[in-house]
Amino acid sequence: MRYRRTDPRPHPLRRPARPLTVLLLAAALLASAGCVTGDKPQALDTTCAVVVDGSGSGSANKGFDAKAKLNASIVPFMKDQHCGSLAYAPITASSKASPCHISDVDLDPPSESTDDVEAIRQNARVKAVAGAHAMLTCAHDTNGGSDVLGGIARAAEALPSEGGRTALLVVSDFEQFDPEFALTGKSIATPEARRKSIDKLIASRGVPPLSGMDVYPVGYGMSRQAKPSAFEPFDAFWTELMVRRGKARVHDDYRR
Predict the structure, then answer these.
(1) What are the record keywords, sorted (predicted)?
(2) What does the pLDDT look like over 58-112, one tens digit per residue?
């Protein structure tokens, strides 16, 4: 809705107010220089990790395309969740024993008051993305299999259990298939079957330390989504394992 201007025209000798577009442009230029105000940008205080699925089901030709899902989600995840650091974990046949290792990245490096903090953070995010790709490549090159629970546990154990928010991005279809356990239709068909399967899965591995953690799956159950009869027991299985037993908060923000 438009309103007619009723205020008097400015006096000929009085300098008119600066157009809004000029003010916005000035603000944008100052922001790009990192000096909108004299205050340092807010600290990035979430400790984050990313888990990448290197199994065959994550390949572009055979599955949900883990690389494409990673590319689409990792930068929004780091920005949205205010990640101050990023750790890595692979999903392989035996994820916790996998030799794949990438050093954590500091996403909020120390800076001086005159530094362009956003540029520094952007460079750190570029390094973090490269690290995620390196971890995915290593996981792909390792022996086949899909120990999803082990990958989640390895990442969760790398994050502090106290002292602040933690967030976990899991790029996987969550099809658990390792030398000791296979997630089949029969193994999760009924509540009783799911309970027995979960008990078997965690008997020697334990429940990952997910309590209070925010978990963001990407590619979750993609091969089953077209059939409710296949997806619903699958979803019930992982909900029981991660939410009810693991006490995680699971979100759909990047699931697509």
Answers:
(1) Signal
(2) 555 556 789 999 999 999 999 999 999 999 999 999 999 999 999 999 999 987 7
CB neighbour class for 209 (10 Å; exposed up to 12, middle 13-18, buried from 19): middle
| Cβ–Cβ under 8 Å, residues 171 and 52 | yes
pTM, rounded to two decimals: 0.81
Q: What beta strand segments (E) does the chain contain?
A: 46-53, 83-91, 105-106, 166-171, 177-178, 181-182, 214-218, 249-250
Rounded-to-integer distance, Cα 151 and Cα 170, Å: 9
Q: Cα separation of 92 and 138, whole Å?
A: 10
Does the pLDDT value for residue 225 go beyond 50? yes
Find the radius of gyration of the CA atoms of the chain: 24
Which residues have a Cβ under 8 Å from the Cβ of 241 and sit 6 or more positions away? 149, 198, 201, 202, 207
Average pLDDT over residues 209-228: 92
Query: By three-state DSSP, how is residue 67 classified?
Result: helix
Residue 231 confidence (pLDDT) above 70: yes
The Cα 52–Cα 59 span in angstroms is 12
Give yes or no for residue 120 having a pLDDT over 80. Answer: yes
- Give me the residues paired with residue 214 across strands: 167, 249
